[in-house]
Design brief:
Order of helices and strands: HHHHHHHHHHHHHH
Number of helices: 14
CATH class: Mainly Alpha
Number of domains: 1
Largest sheet: none
Strand content: under 5%
Radius of gyration: 18 Å
Number of strands: 0
CATH architecture: Up-down Bundle
Structural class: mainly alpha
Distance between the termini: 15 Å
CATH topology: Na+/H+ antiporter like fold
Oligomer: single chain
Shape: globular
């Protein structure tokens, strides 16, 4: 049980940061424009720096088997979620059906998942979890993009995303064990350090602006959130138990799979004329639910690793 306490502590810290963002938004200190600009900074600058910094901090590069698991496990998590989503919402109108299924499939694996992984698992967890972000983007901009837009997959966006860029820069440095000068590594580390606090503030701001009352009676929102936050990560947990990767990869991927609905759900819904208010509801409700479900899965995952002797 010794490793359970830090899990609760880290999640509690992040929830307090979310609360700060919530209060700042309600007081008018953090505007919608400000949140959007912070999000751009996080996605385009901070996320690649976070991944590179994590890879710089690894003393021993992961084995080939671990790398294969790091690439394969996230794909399994997303395909499990796709399978679950296709079983539900068959009678909903197309605009709702697409949003609800997208909500079930795609978690906030990078924007909220990586900060949680960083706090709970550490740099090695971030390095291994970065493959989840890459896989997420590949499937989001192919399957997810096609589902929401009706167009052909956007391969350029799938390949040229912050997760891929971070890995392309960081992996050679890690495996070649290059020692970069401090004038380079320190700015990268400082930018990486912005990830968790800024991401949590933006999430708090987003929750503060969401019209939660509009979705209290929408059964579809509850169903999508339950499937995203409990069913999909629960089945994925069984997959991880069968796969038995190393502990850092086990916990990193489980936390990312248990993250709330991806913010891309709202972005895609607005861009392609789907039900954007419904998308906002699933993102907001799932983020609130994460206060309970993410600590649950983090603790269950930690105890499972202990019970199975996974190190």
């Amino acid at each position: 049980m010794g490793s359970v306490g830090p899990v609760f502590t880290q999640v509690a810290i992040m929830m307090l940061l979310i609360a700060v963002g919530f209060v700042m938004t309600r007081l008018g200190m953090l505007t919608e424009k400000g949140s959007a600009e912070i999000t751009t900074l996080l996605l385009r600058i901070v996320t690649p720096c976070l991944i590179v910094n994590a890879l710089l901090g690894i003393d021993e590069p992961p084995s080939l088997g671990t790398l294969l698991m790091a690439m394969g496990a996230p794909a399994a998590a997303l395909f499990i979620a796709i399978g679950i989503s296709l079983l539900f919402f068959k009678k909903d109108p197309p605009e709702r059906k697409k949003v609800l299924r997208f909500s079930v499939v795609f978690s906030n694996a990078g924007f909220m998942g990586l900060p949680l992984v960083q706090g709970i698992v550490g740099d090695r967890g971030v390095a291994l979890g970065s493959f989840f972000v890459v896989t997420f983007n590949l499937i989001c901009w192919t399957y997810g993009y096609t589902m929401m837009s009706g167009d052909k997959p956007n391969l350029k966006a799938a390949l040229l995303n912050p997760g891929v860029i971070g890995l392309v820069i960081g992996l050679p440095i890690c495996f070649l064990r290059l020692r970069l000068p401090g004038v380079i590594t320190q700015p990268i580390a400082l930018l990486a350090g912005l990830n968790t606090p800024l991401a949590m503030l933006v999430i708090g701001s987003y929750v503060a602006r969401a019209d939660l009352k509009a979705f209290v009676r929408d059964a579809g929102v509850y169903k999508a959130v339950l499937l995203r936050m409990l069913a999909a990560p629960g089945i994925f947990l069984l997959f991880l138990i069968a796969l038995r990767p190393e502990r850092d990869l086990f916990l990193a991927n489980l936390i990312q799979a248990a993250a709330p609905v991806a913010a891309n759900c709202v972005l895609f819904a607005v861009e392609y004329g789907r039900d954007s208010r419904l998308a906002s509801g699933t993102v907001a409700f799932s983020t609130l639910a994460a206060v309970v479900t993410i600590p649950l899965f983090a603790v269950v995952g930690s105890l499972t690793c202990q019970a199975l002797g996974i190190v």
